[in-house]
Design a protein that fits this description.
Maltoporin, Chain A; 977 residues; 5-stranded mixed β-sheet; signal
Length: 977
């Protein structure tokens, strides 16, 4: 009987299988867009459960429904979601998804391993699609492509040289001595955006490494590879990223393959660079020459007459030269070639791309070349396990020549132009020998033709994402998500000034510097995400995990002077110097977050991140960075009338904290190599370290509303924020009797307040004509709320001071730290009293983006950018006035602080898609476009976007002899196979 009993027990479950099967019923269907094209990869989810599927190559799907009645939610990127009620015996569904004109279904980041629909987000997260980024015109760099397209983002070009150089500020200044650039994350990889110095300051006499006009390394990313960019502008959105997020976070997602036929796209762009505007050279008469360069004393009178004679002789020979046009008048040729291949099947998707950009500058022998290759793979090993790999390689070369600040190095073009008179012939003779410049320390034509300032970069980015579904039921889902990434940069720099150069003779007698920068960063995170769907429609998303980041750098700079003639070998110089900088940073954190969604009506999120860092005074102490937010969708409540012309009303509020640790080396007092008694030894450096430093901390609260009208053809987003930055780190001079020149302090507080407004309109959307426009408006105000210790506590009150390394002192104009004043103010001495005479913070900014489509084949796009206010310190004009090559002079500094307002046509393009029915071509596109096409401004110099001090600190809006900015024009030709 025992064998029979066992058999009965085995067969018993089979008796209930028909009952279980009877409780389910199949539903099938197809999904297409409004033009009848099948949509591949549409998510089909049973409402109130985690059960779902995706459409296949033909847009078809099949799913088993466990209960009756039921609803299916269909969602797809770029299209409005649709909910359909289904029942037993229903015929195959034919579903048409309409475009999501308001981007309400767009998903945005809400955690390290989770996303949320934009319509449910409690933060003002700005999203730029790849089409918005590069669809109008070819972009040089990612950060430069964001101009005017986002609210709350202030971008300033730090150098007009090919290869970029930009300072990006999200919602104002967040640090005085630390990093003000946001954290960039590409496919889960924390990437370096460092500016790498090359040692050229030792030849030019510039004050610091931030005056070498270096590009920042986000320039290595090919903008054409990008699918979308999400910008977490404030602490309330970026808190989940902890101590790296004090200046905001920019999350870049690159393109992925889609299941279906293999698609091949090739784009070829041809264009040119030309200067945005020339300042112009002063015209003289013989009498003006004598008066300008002479004087009342006998020797001055003789000098004026001699200069007049030189002028008249040059006029007679026809040798009046416009050196500004000669140096900056090149039309640099640009070619940009891009190839993309993508496709896949139900298990594996791939995206392969390669790009080559070769861009010549407006100065002869300057340019930028970038080759990039990408392989993105997604493989579904099983229904539970998915792996994604993103591999990127880039090799770039930049020739930047010499511009910016110097101290009589004779190299910077702006300096030599300021003092060089147009009747001096500086061209080489028949044997190639360049004459000395009688007006300044260098011949700019020799600088252009014989000096070298080069940078070569090899870089690899690798991101890995593993998603394992541990548990999947109708109401529960548990996923383990591992993210890993590495960023390796090998940069080599080369600077050469020949011994024959005018300023080198009898001084350095030739200068040569070679640098090698080896940077290696890696990060990983392990996050568990649990989703729970209740029968009442309340959904819970819980996540917890760990994160780790390691950064290391080995920066070696070797330089030599006193060169053997015609040699460019470091060993051929008699005065050699070697500098090396080593860095290693570790950071570790815990992440906890809970999100509750009540029928899409109320969405609340609370979380906290605990971080520790080797950059803090106590490397084992965890600092907490909390966040909380709530969004209320009034239009989802039952009392809302579906016929109401207002389709969306969302109220939202959010709070969060982020941090920023001290830069490497600030915790300790360093030693400097010195010869002591003829032997190698060390002395204490001038910077006094502090082992008790704590992170700078930003606390932000924001309030906002999102509105949608008239079938969401009118959309409004408005946000107000208050952001307090506590315990800012800064350097302060101390009495030399202490044995140090300065100390680092941690007792400065700052407040930023701002308003952001976006209006999106789709007034016309027909088969033959569509017009979409977006208007962005934003402003920010800053105030220093604490300087030094609080009243009533022990310690020393700190007087107002000029921060180090941001400008050139109150005598020329600078930033000035004064309690109750904006941190962005420009100050000068007026009657011996420090006085604010300008503010680099714009009064407001405005972007107006327009997209028109005619007859489905012709696209017309243009973007205007208006910046009102924002004063600049124009020290280029100070130089040219001193050199008498400009027609005006000021008796005081105030005349050189100018209004930097401008109205610019930032981008414009026209593209025509040829309608084809071919076995080879899917489509052909031709078009023309431009960047920085025209600018209306009263600013008297080259461009009201300037930053001589690079992208760090308070550097923006200080102009000294820049590499002038360029406008670009392109012809486009594209093929789809």
């Amino acid at each position: 009987m025992q064998p029979i009993n066992r058999l009965c027990w085995l067969l018993l479950p089979a008796l209930f299988l028909p009952c279980l099967a009877y409780g389910q019923y199949p539903v099938t269907g197809t999904v297409t867009d409004n033009e009848g094209e099948p949509l591949v990869g549409v998510t089909v989810l049973i409402v109130g459960t985690t059960t779902g599927t995706v459409t296949d190559f033909d847009g078809s799907f099949a799913i088993d429904i466990p209960e009756e009645p039921a609803e299916l939610r269909l969602s797809y990127t770029g299209f409005a979601s649709q909910v359909i009620e289904v029942s037993r015996g229903i015929a195959p569904l034919e579903i048409i998804l309409m475009p999501d004109v308001a981007n309400l279904e767009q998903v945005v980041v809400t955690g390290l391993a989770s996303t949320i629909k934009r319509t449910n987000s409690a933060n003002a997260v700005s999203v730029v699609s790849g089409e918005e980024l590069t669809g109008v015109t070819t972009q040089q760099t990612v950060d430069g492509a964001l101009y005017g397209k986002l609210t709350g983002v202030n971008i300033t070009q730090t150098s007009g040289a090919p290869g970029g150089g930009y300072a990006v500020r999200l919602r104002g200044v967040s640090s005085l001595s630390g990093n003000n650039q946001p954290l960039f994350i590409v496919d889960g990889v924390y990437i370096s955006n460092v500016e790498l110095p090359n040692g050229s300051r030792s030849a030019s006499g510039a004050n610091g490494a931030n005056e070498e006009s270096s590009s920042n390394r986000i320039a290595d990313i090919n903008p054409d590879d990008i699918e979308s960019i999400e910008v977490l502008k404030g602490a309330s959105a970026a808190a989940i990223y902890g101590t790296r997020a004090n200046a905001g976070v920019v999350i870049i997602t690159t393109k992925k393959g889609v299941s279906g036929e293999t698609r091949v796209t090739f784009n070829q762009d041809l264009g040119f660079n030309t200067i945005i505007r020339k300042v112009g050279r002063r015209s003289f008469t013989p009498e003006q020459v004598e008066a300008e360069f002479g004087g009342d004393e006998p020797d001055e009178i003789a000098a004026g007459r001699a200069e007049r004679a030189l002028y008249e002789a040059a006029v007679a020979r026809g040798e009046l030269f416009d050196y500004e046009d000669i140096l900056y008048g090149e039309k640099g040729f640009i070619t940009d070639s891009r190839l993309r291949v993508s496709g896949g099947n139900e298990r594996t998707n791939f995206f392969v791309s390669s790009g080559w950009r070769d861009e010549a500058g407006i100065i002869k022998n300057t340019g930028y070349e970038r080759f990039s290759a990408r392989l993105n793979l997604t493989h579904r090993i099983s229904d539970r396990l998915k792996i994604q790999s993103n591999t990127y390689y880039v090799r770039s070369q930049a020739n930047r020549s010499f511009s910016g600040n110097e101290n009589e190095g004779g190299l910077s073009y702006g300096y030599t132009l300021a003092y060089t008179r147009d009747w001096v012939n500086l061209f080489p003779d028949e044997e190639g020998n360049y004459p000395d410049n009688p007006n300044f320390a260098g011949n700019p034509l020799q600088t252009r033709d014989q000096t070298r300032n080069e940078e070569n970069v090899n870089r690899v980015l690798e991101g890995i994402n593993v998603n394992y579904n541990v548990l999947q039921t109708n109401n529960h889902s548990l996923n383990l998500i591992f993210n890993g990434g590495l960023d390796f940069i090998l940069s080599k720099t080369f600077v050469y000034v020949p011994e024959t150069f005018q300023s080198q003779r009898n001084r350095q007698n030739g200068f040569l510097a070679e640098g090698k920068n080896d940077l290696f960063n890696y990060n990983y995170s392990a996050i568990a995400v649990h989703d729970y769907y209740t029968e009442s429609g309340i959904n819970f998303t819980s996540q917890a995990g760990i994160t780790y980041l390691n950064q290391s750098a080995d920066q070696l700079l070797s330089q030599t002077t006193q060169l053997i003639p015609l040699q460019t070998n470091l060993a051929r110089g008699s005065a050699q110097e070697i500098d090396q900088f080593l860095l290693n940073v570790e950071e570790f954190g815990y992440v906890l977050q809970e999100e509750v969604n009540v029928n899409d009506r109320l969405i609340a999120t609370a979380g906290v991140r605990f971080d520790k860092s080797s950059l803090n005074g106590d490397p084992n102490k965890f600092y907490a960075f909390p966040r909380a937010s709530v969004a209320l969708n009034l239009h989802e409540f039952d009392f809302w009338n579906p016929s109401n012309p207002i389709q969306q009303v969302k109220l939202r509020a959010a709070y969060g904290q982020t941090g920023n640790s001290a830069s490497f080396g600030r915790l300790f007092t360093t030693l400097t190599n010195n010869s002591i008694g003829g032997r190698a030894g060390f002395t204490v450096d001038g910077q006094q370290g502090d082992g008790d430093l704590v992170p700078e901390t930003s606390s932000e609260i924001e309030f906002g509303t999102d509105l949608g009208f008239l079938d969401n053809k009118v959309n409004v987003t408005a946000t107000y924020y208050i952001r307090d930055v506590k315990d800012l780190l800064y350097d302060r001079a101390v009495p030399t009797s202490s044995g140090f020149s300065n100390e680092i302090r941690n007792d400065l507080d700052l407040r930023n307040r701002g308003f952001e407004f976006q209006l999106g309109l789709l007034p016309v959307n027909t088969a033959n004509f569509s017009y979409r426009t977006t208007l962005n408006f934003w402003l920010n105000r800053s105030e220093i709320t604490r300087l030094g210790v609080e009243d009533g506590t022990e310690g020393e009150d700190i007087p107002s001071f000029v921060p180090s390394g941001v400008a050139f002192g109150l005598g020329l104009g600078t930033f000035y730290i004064n309690e109750g004043s904006p941190i962005t103010g420009l100050w000068e001495n007026v009657g011996g009293v420090p006085t604010q005479t300008g503010n680099t913070e714009p009064d407001f900014q405005f972007g107006w983006n327009n997209n028109l489509t005619l007859f489905q084949d012709l696209d017309v796009n243009f973007l205007f950018h208006w910046r009102q206010g924002s004063e600049l310190l124009n020290l280029t004009r100070l130089l040219t006035d001193d050199g008498r090559t400009t027609p005006r002079e000021y008796d005081n500094l105030e005349g050189y602080i100018e209004d930097g307002s401008y109205f610019r046509l930032r981008e414009a393009g026209i593209t025509y898609r040829l309608p084809l029915e071919s076995d080879v071509f899917r489509g052909i596109r031709i078009g023309v476009s431009g960047r920085n096409i025209f600018t209306l401004t009263d600013y008297s110099s080259y461009d009201p976007e300037a930053s001589v001090k690079g992208g760090s600190g308070l550097s923006t809006n200080i102009e000294v002899a820049p590499f002038p900015s360029a406008k670009q024009f392109y012809f486009h030709l594209g093929f789809d196979f």
